[in-house]
Amino acid sequence: MAWIGRSTVRVEDERFLKGRATYTGDLTFPDMAFLAVVRSPVAHARIRTIDVAAAETAPGVLWVIQPRDLVRAGVGTFSNRIRYKGTDGKPMFETPRTLLAGERVRYVGEPIVAVVAESREAAVDAADAVILDFEEIPALANLEAALAPEATQIWQEAPGNIAFEHLLGDKEAADRAFANAAHITQLEMRISRVTAAPIEPRVAVAQPDVRRRRTTLYCATQTPHGLRTELASRILRVPSARLRVVALDVGGAFGMKSNDFAEYGLCVLAAERLDRAVKWTADRSEAFVSDHHARDNLWRAELALDAEQRFLGMRTESFANLGAYLAYAGTHQATNNVGGLAGVYRTPAMVARVCGVYTNTQSVSPYRGAGRPEATFVVERLVETAAAELGIDPVELRRRNLIQPDEMPFKTGLVFTYDCGDFPNLMERALAEGDWDGFSYRREVSEARGRLRGRGLAMAIEIAGGPPGTPFEEFASLTIDASGSAFARVGTHSHGQGHETAFRQILAEWLGLPPDWIDIAYGDTDEVPHGRGTYGSRSIGAAGAALAACRDEIINKAKRIAAHSLEADSDDVTFRDGAFVIDGTNRGMSLKDVAAAAYQPAMLPKDVEAGLSAAHIVSTKGPTFPNSAHVCEVEIDRETGVVSVERYRVVDDVGTVVNPLLLHGQIHGGVAQGIGQALLENVVHDGDGQLLSGSFQDYAMPRASDLPMISIDSQGVPTAMTPLGTKGAGEAGAVGALVAVTNAVCDALRPFGVVHLDPPITSEKVWCAMQSGNAPQAFNHQQERQ
Does the pLDDT of residue 543 top 80, yes or no? Predict the structure, then answer.
């Protein structure tokens, strides 16, 4: 039976829908203590004194952890994975980020003291009793302030508050392209700051095991093995064998939960000191000031075209807000996916300069797409703006410049080499299925109701399973027991993607077993010895490659066992549909029968060991490039500026689709997040670095009423980079949605002379743009069409 490509319902949903899931917040242990964190109320200051006397004598308090306690314990600092050079050519300064602030705080919410008590209420009350005295320093709450000539130095080791400068591409070739251009389009853009805001805030529980002299940390992380290494080696400075990390069910992660956080280390320290379980739970307000933020960068971009409107070159300069401290992958989203600026177009000469900038705000780290939505936003806004300036249909401009299928593999002008894809057909299908040609009628209907209507097209592409040249490895093991059941262990982690369903489908087809006979495990560093984790749309490709290697080893071994039992040559045995058959005969054995024989040494060839088990750590052949075409239509109320998304169509190419139902769920979620950032979401600080959007009263999340019905279709061009031909889908919706919505809004406002609006495109921003425009109230769309 074919399982790959079937829309089977998620097996996970039974426990989720019935309230049987196990989240970290559900865990309780006997004699468990609770931890609360005292955070900085100011964005930049020297700490004069920390008075914990009242906290230490408060009812139920077990330990007040101060910075000096960390020094005594020899606690280390977190690392930064991706390093570049500064503008002076010297190695990048790595900010010393530890569990508690030392002599200076650099953002509102930075941990200063932790209190452990018998109850959560007692810990919170005692934390409120800690008295802090500061000598405040001027704060730099945004990029403009941090880059100003007279700006305060956040780190003396980073002059001008510049963390690094990263240059990609061929500057000389790009400059020549612009010198020969018939037309140049220039645009300045800001990508707003957002927070992941998962439905489940972060929680950690540390449980010591005195007998084994080790501690188990339960937390909702996307990368259990990476977190264990960071905490054990860098922070606690103990062998990894002394720490076990378990990630249970996760209520949303989106990249933010792939990071290390101070609270996790504090819980482990407290548990080992007190010899009892210690739990920390963030409430929503604390999450806003303790979770990492994302995006937040400024772009200056320009596109060069020749007289036939063909792209010659692109130059970009971006400034990325990194926050006050470098997160583990804090430099990633600003740099590692800049190659996406090439889009799906033939732009031969490209150069991109990226500057990382320190500010007095929370750390910035990957969030769904991690630089991919930003790159797509820039190139697609340039294309739309160039089309308007040239008076050419934006669809026709794209047609002239799209990479053609027969040009694959295609080396872009910036880093990436696309292995496969059919971008022209993808776009034409999206236009047809989104009824692009029927837009004029819908616009007239909207105008009759006193509303503006606009349409936006976005061609999105991203890298998955990278980095280029050296894709990250992944672990998997597979065992078939004597009854014929299969047990798989993977180093990736599922936090909403449906891995338990998808991997069962894959193995069911490969092995000819019913899905119910297959067990999938992940998220426990004891049960799974190695893993990179889940991020960057990598799981099915990377873990699937490792499972394929396990499958091949087991099937080859099983062939020898079957041949021995059938008194045949193993070269004459073929495995198909869950059975081993002798070619040209009706003789064979089921996998179940072979498995039973595999555990009986007397029934095996002399040189074959008992059992059917394999484990592999492998990398894919190379990165993959999921791509999609998004068609969006919006309405704008003329009186209020309120934007509503009316229609949304996606045609995607994620290669082979394992489960269309799971794919559509992933795309829906990504599009919802893209629409949220385009119209609503924005992390805002005042001039003193105080967070003004610290709750859902101030930070607008998309609701069901903000979203249209999202129509999805697939045009899969399988890749040779992964065993299944899959390309990855977890971020596909988010990569294209931000700019598709922005393009549609700018199209609707073009009669008012609006060239560009930065997200979030709020009703106030739209209303002001309409009031300041010079266009007449009644725009002759019939004349525009002519």
Answer: yes
